[in-house]
Amino acid sequence: MRQWKIIAKEAMARASIITKFLCVLHVTNSYVLSSNHVLGPSMLPTLSVTGDVVLVEHISHRLGKLGSGDLVLVRSPLDPKKSLTKRIVAMEGDKVTFSLDPSRSHSSRSLVVPKGHVWIQGDNLYVSRDSRQFGPLPYGLIEGKVFMRVWPPSSFGFFGQ
Amino acid sequence: MFFLIELYAFLKLVNPSWFHFSLTFVFIGNVEMGTPSVLWNIAKKCFTVGVITLTVSDLFASIVQVRGTSMCPTFNPKTNSLLDSLSEDRVLVEKLCLRNYKLAHGDVVVFSSPNNHKEKHVKRIVGLPGDWVRTIYDVVHVPEGHCWVEGDNSASSLDSRSFGPVPLGLVKGRITHILWPPHRVGSVDRKSPQNRVCAS
Question: Which of A67, A120, B23, B123 could be disulfide-bonded to B149 (CB atoms 3.0-4.6 Å)?
Fold first, then answer.
């Protein structure tokens, strides 16, 4: 009988350590720093097609310190279960000029980004689906700022402007 | 000590009254000030409680205060322009629906406003992706990944009729129960609107 009590106590202690660890992990991933595997051709040449592992910080967007030219991780407005990595081209109130389909025509359109929204575009304008297709992105969908690449090791380092 | 104050300020920015409540609880239980090791123990306990509360309120459920009369009579039915803090409804917001975004017509949801990410609104889902919603002048198509929300009190509600369909990524939780005031404690039911939606 006593043995079961000892085992149960030890199990509870181990379980509480694991729970605390998982909670700290969740808080760090959501509010401080997390890593992300990004792939796809829409951000060539900045990010590779086959997949890079990048570090994303979740502090700047809460403090309002994002600006145009920043690489951000956003929740897709077309599918809430997917995340996209794109670059902010214009903040709210800025005028943005863009061409819908650069491979076909030279025509371009302009608009002013409404309040509370940002305009994001992929670096590879030919194959990227971004604000040119789904419109300005609400600021609340931004999840974090991509600031560093950690894999592959040959391109380890911070992202410049 | 500085670290504690900074952490407190940061967490306050990020998570509201639920966190304050649990933190005061821990503090009251550890009132003797004095030697550094006691302070360090208090700090460790506060940090642990804070982190666990934050995780629970992000992943499972949290309690939120509903302000305004746009969801009359479901919440705040007394249309008193001087709604003081004690008489406003407190509701339970569950976050488990955010795993797969399994939302249904008639669910009351909390979402960040598309025009100001710092504000949160409480409205009812009238249209899901792909639906056609009938407004007074028009029939609107709800694009994929978005939903159409409206307040129960159509006369004084700023909702999708003004700012358009809301991306589902902005939805922060679904309201399931009212927890305060005591005479209206109970579950919040799904109310599907009649004749407003033609599903695709």
Answer: B123
Q: Is residue A7 a part of any domain in this protein?
A: no
Q: How far apart are CA A121 and CA B84, in angstroms?
A: 45
- Ramachandran assignment for B195, one of left (phi > 0), alpha (psi -120 to 50 degrees), beta (any other): left
- How confident is residue B1, by pLDDT bands cut at 50, 70 and 90? very low
Total tally of structural domains belonging to chain A: 1
CB contact under 8 A, B169 and A114: no
Tell me if A121 is assigned to some domain: yes
Which residue reads 């911070």 in tokens? Answer: A158
User: Among partner residues A20, A31, A138, which is closest to B167 by beta-carbon distance?
Assistant: A138
Identify whether the C-beta of residue A47 lies closer than 8 Å to the C-beta of residue A38.
Answer: yes
Q: Which domain holds residue A84?
A: 34-158
Instruction: Look at residues B192, B194, B197, B73 and name the one whose alpha carbon lies nearest to residue B135.
Output: B197
Contact list in A for residue B114 (CB cut-off 8 A) is 116-117, 138, 140
A76 touches chain B (CB under 8 A): yes
From chain B, the residues in CB contact with A30 under 8 A are: 58
For A84, the enclosing helix (H) or strand (E) is: strand A83-90
CATH number at residue A142: 2.10.109.10
Whether A12 is covered by a domain: the verdict is no
Q: One digit per residue, pLDDT tens: chain A, 161 residues?
A: 889 999 999 999 999 999 999 999 999 999 999 999 998 899 988 888 888 999 999 999 999 999 899 999 999 999 999 999 999 999 999 999 988 888 888 888 899 999 999 999 999 999 999 999 999 999 999 999 999 999 888 888 888 75
B123 in Cβ contact with B150 (< 8 Å): yes
Q: Does any domain span residue A17? A: no
A64 touches chain B (CB under 8 A): no
Residue pairs between chains A and B whose CB atoms are closer than 8 Å:
68
Q: Closest approach of chain B CAs to the CA of A10, in angstroms? A: 20
ipTM (interface pTM): 0.87
Q: pTM for the complete prediction?
A: 0.83
